Amino acid sequence: MRLALILLCTALPVCAQSYRFERVWDGEKLLTNAVITVEGGKIKAISRDAPNAAQNVVDMTRYTALPGLIDVHTHLTYVDPAKSNKVATAGRSAATVYLSREAARKTLETGVTTVRNLGASDYQDIAMRDLINSGLMTGPRMFVSGYGLFISRGPNPGPGTADGPAEVMRVVRRQVGAGADVIKLYGSTGSGQDVTGFETFTYEEMKAAVDAAHALGKKIAIHTYGPAGARDAIRAGADSLEHATDMDDETIAELARKKIFYVPTIDHNRYYVDNAKKLGYPEGATGPLNDYIARNLDTAKKAWQAGVRFAMGSDVVYTMFGENTRELAWFVRAGMTPEQALRTATVDAAELLGMENSLGRLKPGWLADIVAVEGNPLDDIQVAIGKVRWVMKGGEVVVDHRN
Q: Are 96 and 117 in contact (CB under 8 A)?
């Protein structure tokens, strides 16, 4: 009977259950031999002892508990082309949402319980978010953008195309009306093997997008590979700057002064290099990619030294799911301690999402998103990257690899 009760409370976020960990890093400090009690999908208490001495406590003393990790730049609906291309074009959107279940599962297995998804066709990300929220799909909590905004790129503009401030404002409003949580704007070229970074939208267009998003209570992320787009995105008041490389000292100082989050996504180009043949890149494509990685890391180092706020984003696509948190190792190389790197994927990422009062920390009243890793990630960031053994999201155990 006792075992049945433990299993029931572990599987369902409806009754109180306690877990004893060797260590608990709550987002601010490290506790040893601590008990986390979960009830109703939220953390009820963190203490040395179970709230009720007679209550059975699940033994997790092999592990360190972390807050559920947050990946603020994903593309969960960018599934493996080898799979999606097997479906006729007419049915590809529905098939993509179905195939994205694997991306969602692999993301959870990295300890990422929340994502900000920045760009999807046919509002697939909105459908996926709603399926997860209703319990019809297992996956991370999603904050989604719908279509990202592009300038015209051909004779047949898509739903996210916008030229001129008035059109930009209209398309932003359309995304919000469709159910988007956040706005994404592609402020420069650059994607995949293309690392050019030419500015696309003007400052006036970026400012129109920022103003329209903020007027509707939404935050905006601006993609820019190069420094020109970064300067205008910062001047326009973006909430986060994605990828930006080669920023000069003045631009970085302004980024820090305005407290805009920097999401460098260094590791995604490493993924392209490692998978260049699989992705069909031409001979020689890895040279510019490796050069961009080095410059991206150098910019991140300068930004960190200048006091810029970072949030972890993987820019995960295709077959990269399950590698979401490798970005943390780049942050350590950029000068962060492991604890500072972890904050970019917890406390700081939650603030970027506007969820700092419910996510990113292990704290009474916060959502019970808990990750158990084997080892001490404050000594070695690779523990958080490669030794996730158990994941709870909203009080429900969604990953269990303890055996």
A: no
